[in-house]
Amino acid sequence: MKRSFDDLDPAASRAGEALAMVECASIAEGYAAADRALKAAPVKLLLARPASPGKFLLLFAGSPSSATSSLRAAVEGLSAPPLATLLLPQVEPEVLGALAGEAPAARGEAAAVVECATVATLLLAADVALKTADVGLLQLRAAAGLGGKAFFVLDGEVAQVGAALAAARRFAEERGHLVATVLLSQPHGELGRWLAAGGA
């Protein structure tokens, strides 16, 4: 098992120690929020785009202090409260990598798919899964073309994937945002590339 959430090495993250998110109802104001976030502190922009249904999703990473400052700047300029915000300190590096389109090589023994109703819950559930067991994060899709939903795909040994899936499912259920999960033992080889990157 991996170390606990509070016992992670802050130096482990590639893009920064914290992940921040703002989801707002206005696309135009979303772009302005992204500009404010980038100008407020040194953060790495991971995602800034419209998301279904007609919302705007902003994700960025940096040190905890930088991410906090940028999140505050992004939210303070909105004309209405954001639909959701998230500040996740000491995020697992694989979550940042998946958001950037990176994925580890599939191990093939087992895979799991976790589908959530909100992006914030999905990001937190993915982080919980990676901190629970030795698994890889093959894919993470957030809201685009999904009707506002999001999902991620885990990969690894059966027991490890099962443990990670159980932790992620429990977390998403407690927040009331779990849509569905599935555990695939020995997924067919033809399915592998679709699990890893949606067929890309």
- Could you say which overall geometry the principal axes of the C-alpha atoms support? elongated
Structural class computed from helices and strand pairing: alpha+beta
> CATH superfamily membership of the largest domain, which one?
BMC (bacterial microcompartment) domain
Cα Rg: 16 Å
The CATH topology of the largest domain is what? Alpha-Beta Plaits
In words, what does this structure look like?
With 200 residues, the chain is an alpha+beta fold. Helix content is 37%, strand content 29%. It contains six helices and eight strands. The strands form two sheets. The chain has a four-stranded antiparallel β-sheet with strand order 2-3-1-4, covered by helices on one side. A hairpin with a 7-residue loop joins strand 6 and strand 7. The radius of gyration is 16 Å and the shape is elongated. The two termini are 31 Å apart.
Features:
disordered N terminus, 8 strands, 200 residues, Alpha-Beta Plaits, 29% strand, 2 domains, alpha+beta, four-stranded antiparallel β-sheet, single chain
Structure summary:
It is built from 6 helices and 8 strands, in the order E-H-E-E-H-E-H-E-H-E-E-H-E-H.
